[in-house]
Amino acid sequence: MKSLKKIKSGLFQRNFGLAKVLLDSRSLLTGRAENLLGQLSHLAPDKLQNIVSELGMMKGSLMKGGQLLLHYAGPYLSPEAREWLSQLESQSYFLEWEQIKNQIPLAWREELKIESSPLAAASLGQVHRGLSPSGIPVAMKIQYLGVDKAIDNDLLALKLLLGMMKLLPQEFPLDTFLEEIKTMLAYEMDYKREARLTKFFGEKFQGEGVIVPAVEDQYSHDKILTTHFIPGTSLRELLKANALSQSERDELGRKFLRIFLRELFEIGKIQSDAHAGNYLIVMPGQSTQPVERPTWALLDFGAVKEVPESFLLLYRQMVRGVILQDRDLYFRAFEGMGFLQSGREVDRGRLWSYGELLTEPFRHGVYDFGASDLPQTLMKQSQQLMQDVSKLSPPADLLFIDRKIGGTYFMLKTLGARVNVDEEIAPFLK
User: Fold this and answer.
1) Residue-wise over 203-213: b if at least 16 C-beta within 10 A, else e?
2) Predicted local distance difference test score (pLDDT) of residue 44
3) C-alpha to C-alpha distance for 209 and 83, rounded to whole angstroms
4) Which of 75, 267, 272, 320 matches a 20 to 30 Å C-alpha distance to 34?
C-alpha cells in the first residue's frame, strides 16, 4: 500500500481534482477511433494509469461508486469497462497516521493502543488494529473526513467520465444503477447503521457455526466503528496453501449457500456483494472462540441491502416457477415486480432461459461448482439479456439479488465445493 499525506476532501479541492481528471480524460480520448480499445491503442499506458491513480488518491464516493458499479453491474458491462473499473479496486493508498489519528478521540487512542500502520485501506476509510484495556484485540474502521459530503458531485463526475470514455453501451440504464449506488454509499458511510446491523446478523447466525465480530459501542460513533478483531485467513491464502480438504470445502460451500438463502428468504437483509473481501475463514486453534472445523467469519455490514417482503415473495415465486417449469408462475412474478410493462415486446424465451440458468444448481441434487462454468456463462447471458434492458425496466432490487447470486456461485466455484443445493433451498420455497 502507498501512503498519502492528505485526501482532497474539501469541496473546492475535490471539484478541481475531478475537473482535472475529466479534462485529462477528454484530451486522451479525442482520437478518431470510435471505441475505447481503438483509442487506447494510441496511448502510453502510464497516461491512462495517471487518471486511475488520481482517482485513487482522491478516495471517496467516485472511486467507491466505480467499484460498486463493477460489482453490481459487472455482467452487463463491456470487457473494456470491467477492465477499467477493476483498476480502481487495485488502488491501495492509505492516509498517514499523523493525519487520520486526529479523527480519533484522544482518550480512545490512549486506551486502545492503536497501531499506526493500517490493516487495510479502502475508498471510504481504513482499518487499524488495537488492543482494548481488557486485552481483547480490536479492529477500528475510520471514515475519511468529508467523503460523506461529496456523494452527489462524485457520482456526477463518474457519470461524465464513463460517458466521455464511451465505456457503456447506449442501452445501459446508468441512472438506475447510480441511484442504487447512491443509496448504498449513504449506507456504507453510516457507521451507526452498520453497528446495528452487525449486532443483528450476530444474533441471527448465533449457534450456526458462523462468526460475526462483536461491536465495541464505547469506541464507536457515526464515523468510527470498532469491533473485535477476527484472526481469520482469506480463502485465497488457504487455497494457495492447499489447506482445505474436499469435505471441508463442501461444508464451507454448504454454509456459504445457506447464509445467502437465509438472508434472501428469511432475514430480508442481504450482506453486500458476495466477494472474498467480505469474508474470512477461521481455522481450528486460530481464534479464542471454539472452532472444530473451518468456519466463515462475516465482515463489513455497511452495504447491507434491505429487501421488502413483498418483493421477496415475488422473487420466491419466480424461483419456484423455474424449478417447477411453470412458465405462467414465472412470468406472473415478473409482472408483479413491475419488470414487464404492458405494450412492450420482450423476448420471453431469452428471459426464461436466463431464469433456468440462474437456478440451474437448484435442479441437480448435488452440484459440483468446481467443475461448472456457470458463473462465466451467467455473465455472458447477462450481457445478451442487456439488449432488452431498455424494454424490461428491471427494478434495482432484482439486479442486486441477481448479482449476489452470481457472486455466490463464483465463491462456491472458487472453493470447488459440491453442495446439494436442492436440499438447501427446499425449506425456503414452501
Assistant:
1) ebbeeeebbbb
2) 41
3) 37
4) 75
Higher local confidence (pLDDT), 362 or 34? 362
Radius of gyration of the chain (CA): 22
Q: How confident is the model at residue 249 (pLDDT cuts 50, 70, 90)?
A: very high
396 burial (CB, 10 Å; 0-12 / 13-18 / 19+) is: middle
Q: In angstroms, rounded to a whole number, what is the distance separating the alpha carbons of residues 132 and 219?
A: 10
Residue identified by cell 468529508 is 146
Residue 41 pLDDT class (50, 70, 90 cuts): very low
Give CA–CA dist 254/309, Å, rounded.
25
DSSP label at 233? Answer: B
Q: C-alpha grid cell for residue 218?
A: 464505547
Three-state secondary structure of 288-343: CCCCCCCEEEECCCCCEEECCHHHHHHHHHHHHHHHCCCHHHHHHHHHHHCCCCCC
386-415: pLDDT as tens digits: 655 545 566 777 777 877 888 899 899 999
Set of cell numbers at residue 45 = 499506458
Residue range 105-122, pLDDT digits in tens? 999 999 999 999 999 888
Query: Mapping DSSP to helix (H, G, I), strand (E, B) and coil, where does residue 139 land?
Result: strand
* Most confident segment among 83-87, 243-247, 286-290, 339-343: 243-247
The number of beta carbons lying within 10 Å of the beta carbon of residue 241 is 9
Number of helices and strands (H, E) in the chain? 19, 12
pLDDT score at 8: 55
* 24 CB-near residues (< 8 Å, 6+ apart): 47, 50, 51, 54
Q: What is the pLDDT of residue 86?
A: 66
DSSP state of 37: H
CA–CA separation, 94 and 389 (whole Å)? 38
Residue 146 DSSP class: T
By CB neighbour count within 10 A (0-12 exposed, 13-18 middle, 19+ buried), where does 365 fall?
A: exposed
Q: What is the pLDDT of residues 1-12, one digit of tens each?
A: 566 666 555 544
Whether the CB-CB separation of 350 and 384 falls below 8 Å is answered with yes
Q: Tell me the CA distances in angstroms from 271 to 33, 53, 184, 301, one per residue in order.
A: 41, 29, 11, 6
Single-letter code of the amino acid located at 48:
L
Task: Specify the amino acid at residue 249.
Answer: R
Q: What are phi and psi of 141, to 5 degrees?
A: -95, 125
